[in-house]
Amino acid sequence: MRNILFLLSILVSISVTAQEDADNIKKIYSTSLTNGKSYEWLDHLSNQIGGRLSGSLNAEKAVEYTKEELEKLGLDKVWLQPVMVPRWVRGAPEFAYIETSPGKTTSVNICALGGSIATPSGGIKANVVEVKSLDELEALGKEKIEGKIVFFNRPMQADLINTFEAYGGCVDQRYAGAREAGKFGAVGVIVRSVNLRLDDYPHTGSMSYGDLPNSQRIPSAAISTNDAELLSNMLGLNKDIKFYFSQHCQQLKDVQSYNVIGEITGSEFPNEYIIVGGHLDSWDLGDGSHDDGAGCVQSMDVLRLLKESGIKPKRSIRVVLFMNEENGLRGGRKYAEVAKAKGEKHVFALESDSGGFTPRGFTFDCSDAVYNKVLGWKELFKPYLIHYFEKGGSGADIGPLKDDNIVLAGLRPDSQRYFDHHHAANDTFEHVNKRELELGAATMTALVYLFDKYGTETITDKTELKD
Questions:
Q1: Is residue 114 predicted with pLDDT exceeding 90?
Q2: Catalytic annotation on 325?
Q3: Residues 305, 307, 309, 313: is their CA dihedral positive or negative?
């Protein structure tokens, strides 16, 4: 009898706890959707400040603005964490055309890739060799590449539902194309924009020369998908056409910037830290609304929503707005470096860096034991149509925190439209839906609430019941 009564008491306790969690999560969603701040913050970041390239004046303004807004929330601590960041500037607008015969040209849309050198002042004009991969480039060799512009034209794989997988399948040509082509004597590189749809927007992004000598470094630019199709078709008709482009970018000395950090100190375990964040920097072509203004304002709202919902965290909850994810990851590395030096115990980190679209769920970088525990929370998210709980990656900025004691996670919104805007001039505020953004903020807050309440340790009931 005692066993039965004990089991009943456990079941009642579990039921009450589950209902409490459901009620708190409902309150979080209701507060975000009726009294959210993320859209208002994003409006200012996007429309009053704009693109926030690392080391720029706009990045500095974004640091000042977000720090002020976090201070208004009445958090226990708000501070700036210094970090040195690279400063690359685009300069005057790029210009390019395809020349089919002397004096007969067709203008095309390009943009310099982040980290590229400039062309000579008069630009570059040369014959073009089209390749689909770095392996194909190597197979051609110096004889067929020297003195030419290499055109990397591998599109994203359209039949992959996970568009980030498609992105990962072709981004190597953007990042390493100029480095590899320079080894074979190419004079320039043009890369098909990493974008699933056909449009006229060139998409920038980071590239690297690695340890290639300066004498072999060549300018690299992205071309819009429409114009990549045009160039490829024209090459199919005439291999002797020429391509001209000019760009005026340059790499300047590193400058000081900051990660922006705010904290609610935990009531029971103040020395255990949960962080939530996004990256404050963006590329300069648009205003960085999806990448990653959305993630920043959602992360800021996590702390506000906890306070507004009357939830007092057991552990210390930090929002971290990382600087320089796009072209260096200096902010993420600096945060991890300082945390390690201080001996801080981080138990959970959640990043939003996949756009402000409708949230679908999360990916988790953790042990099987913790993951199985997390799967037990899926029913709490079911009313909000959050169903995607998978093991996988988390986020670039929280990656440097990885060790055996921390759980890393990434918010996963619907990604089908993300690469239409990624690193392009149309990554702007009007392409973010207010309700979708607020749903994402609530979804992040709900997960932080659960990790804070239950921790990351798996609990095994070793109690033996006796008559």
A1: yes
A2: yes
A3: positive
